[in-house]
């Protein structure tokens, strides 16, 4: 299917690694022009050159927890595109496995600054301009935990649930010109999990008393994921591209789960 994304201007936040990187590369393969924003903008430049998409991908630096950084980055984005993007993907996000009792007020504030307020600030700056331009699509990357909370990573789940709620409000406020949807990944094998220092894998190994793939398999079994595996960032990117395209032209205010069936709710 031709998604009609050739020549589109696309902004992706949190695009240095993992899901964000796969989203950028998927748009580049479709012939889009992308600005990737991340605190590790050097990694974006590296993979753009490695993959041969250097002419299609521009890297911009920003700490997405800092309002002034976001403002400066968006000035560079609009200068690059000559205006607001056609497509906005708010992907940036992070979290750590911690129980409710372990989480401090500062933990909640840090998580919400990155996962929630970055989306609010970017949308506040760009979505009205997209509306004024006559057409646009926003895809916010949330989480299966925004729909089915667990007893750990409470701050992360709450921040992603807040993103999903604001997405619904924006979808109503800016229709019919701008569509706003969510993609809600389940467990996806990225550095978010696998990083030796900051990834969740070490916590999973400690929780189950197993190592490597055995620990991952224990988690999958414990959570009862019907597909019996973790997802790939490419599978999430495919969902983002679909919701960004005119193929999803009658879809707004929706959440598309890419979670292997981990969410049991019917709504």
Automatic annotation (TrEMBL):
InterPro entries: NAD(P)-bd_dom_sf, Sc_DH/Rdtase_CS, SDR, SDR_fam. SUPFAM superfamilies: NAD(P)-binding Rossmann-fold domains. Belongs to the short-chain dehydrogenases/reductases (SDR) family. This is SDR family oxidoreductase. It comes from Herbiconiux daphne.
């Amino acid at each position: 299917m031709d998604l009609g994304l050739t020549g589109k201007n696309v902004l992706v936040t949190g695009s240095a690694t993992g899901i964000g990187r796969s989203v950028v590369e998927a748009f580049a393969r479709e012939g889009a022009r992308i600005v990737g924003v991340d605190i590790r903008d050097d990694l974006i430049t590296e993979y753009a050159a490695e993959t041969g998409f250097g002419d299609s991908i521009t890297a911009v630096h920003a700490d997405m927890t800092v309002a002034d950084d976001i403002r400066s980055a968006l000035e560079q984005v609009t200068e690059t595109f000559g205006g607001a993007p056609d497509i906005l993907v708010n992907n940036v996000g992070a979290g750590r496995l911690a129980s409710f009792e372990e989480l401090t007020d500062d933990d909640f504030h840090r998580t919400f600054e990155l996962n929630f307020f970055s989306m609010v600030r970017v949308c506040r700056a760009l979505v009205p301009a997209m509306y004024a331009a006559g057409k646009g699509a926003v895809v916010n990357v949330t989480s299966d935990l925004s729909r089915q909370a667990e007893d750990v990573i409470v701050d992360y789940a709450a921040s992603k649930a807040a993103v999903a709620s604001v997405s619904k409000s924006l979808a109503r406020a800016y229709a019919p010109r701008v569509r706003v949807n969510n993609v809600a990944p389940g467990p996806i094998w990225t550095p978010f999990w696998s990083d030796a220092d900051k990834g969740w894998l070490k916590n999973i190994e400690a929780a189950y008393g197993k190592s490597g793939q055995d620990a991952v398999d224990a988690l999958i079994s414990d959570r009862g994921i019907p597909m019996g595996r973790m997802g790939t960032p490419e599978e999430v990117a495919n969902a983002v591209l679909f919701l960004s395209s005119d193929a999803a032209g009658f879809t707004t205010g929706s959440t598309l789960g890419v979670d292997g069936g981990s969410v049991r709710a019917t709504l």
